[in-house]
Amino acid sequence: MRNILIPFDFSKYAQSAAKTGAALARKTGAQLNLLHVVYAPPEWDRMTVSMQQNYPEVEARMVDAEIKLDKYAEDDTFKGVNVQTFVYSGVAHEQIIQFAKAYKMDLIIMGAHGAGESDKLFVGSTAQRIMRKATVPVLSVKKEYTPKAIKKILFPSDFEEGSMNSLNTVKNLAADLHASITLLFVNTPFNFYDTPSAEARMADFIPVQRAVKFHSFIYNDFDKEKGILNFARQKKMDLIAMVTHNRKGRPNYQLGVTETLLYHTDIPVLSMVMK
After folding, report:
1. Per-residue pLDDT for 149 more than 70?
2. Domain boundaries, the chain
3. Tens digit of each residue's pLDDT (9 = 90 or more) over 257-271
4. pLDDT band at 253; cut points 50, 70, 90
5. Residues in CB range of 212: below 8 A, 6 or more apart
6. CA distances in angstroms from 23 to 44, 77, 142, 268, listed in the order given
7. What is the reported pLDDT for 124?
8. In CATH terms, are 3-142 and 152-273 the same topology?
């Protein structure tokens, strides 16, 4: 891991993400990139300089953000970490996704709202849009999360063929963190597999030659999300890594499995869009 992106809006949620990013950067030697996006009118980047001058408040906010962000980057939070700061203008989620792709970020870390807060704070939020559209893994942490060593990573899945690339991403992260990976197949009444079939699916995902320690479990529950949450709590997992499926044709307001998990757990959630 070489580059970590922290979308930073100066909130407590962003500060939690920054602390988590700093801890990971110290562990992996990655560079930390703090990006603040100042809202600007549509088509801002295509406007001429004379047209942009009709919006002096945008330029003022950018200058103010640059000063504040540079000052924050000097905080003890980032001691021993290589930190770069960036201030862009535009629509937040669009700029963040473009930045991650253009500068080849390996990971985005964001602060996320939870069940103790209004669901309106998450549905339609910048965090939700980035989780759904980013081309790189997105790690979401809660406001009160305190960074700690990540030693046990949970990878719940149906173990379809398309999930293998995501598992490889998790495997690389586990190797960097010296963590183990637990494969989890959740059986539900309406999507039930006998034990030999479920075990066979998981077995195909465990490499013969491996530097990372793997475990595998089958867990029965009435609901997939509850099964994942219950298992993660019982086994005291440090991170839940989820594959997010294509949402084409589904309403934007409808929460997916990954989003539901994030909403209801204090455990950090790593989401990866299936490619």
Report:
1. yes
2. 3-142, 152-273
3. 888 888 888 999 999
4. very low
5. 171, 174, 175, 179, 180, 181
6. 35, 9, 15, 14
7. 47
8. yes
User: Where does the chain have alpha helices with state H?
Assistant: 12-28, 49-52, 56-72, 92-102, 126-133, 164-177, 195-203, 224-234, 257-264
Rounded CA separation 106/111 (Å): 17
Other residues' Cβ atoms within 10 Å of the Cβ of residue 252 = 10
Q: Quick one: average pLDDT of 152-171? A: 91
Q: What does pTM read for this prediction?
A: 0.90
Q: Which of 25, 27, 33 is nearest to 81 (CA)?
A: 25
Residue 252: which pLDDT band, with cuts at 50, 70 and 90?
A: low
Q: How far apart are CA 167 and CA 242, in angstroms?
A: 9
**How many angstroms separate the Cα of 249 from the Cα of each of 65, 164, 243?**
38, 24, 18
Q: Which fold has domain 152-273?
A: Rossmann fold (3.40.50)
| Interatomic CA distance for residues 135 and 205, integer angstroms | 22
User: Which residues neighbour 220 within 8 Å (Cβ) at sequence distance 6 or greater?
Assistant: 186, 187, 188, 227
Top CATH class, 3-142: alpha beta
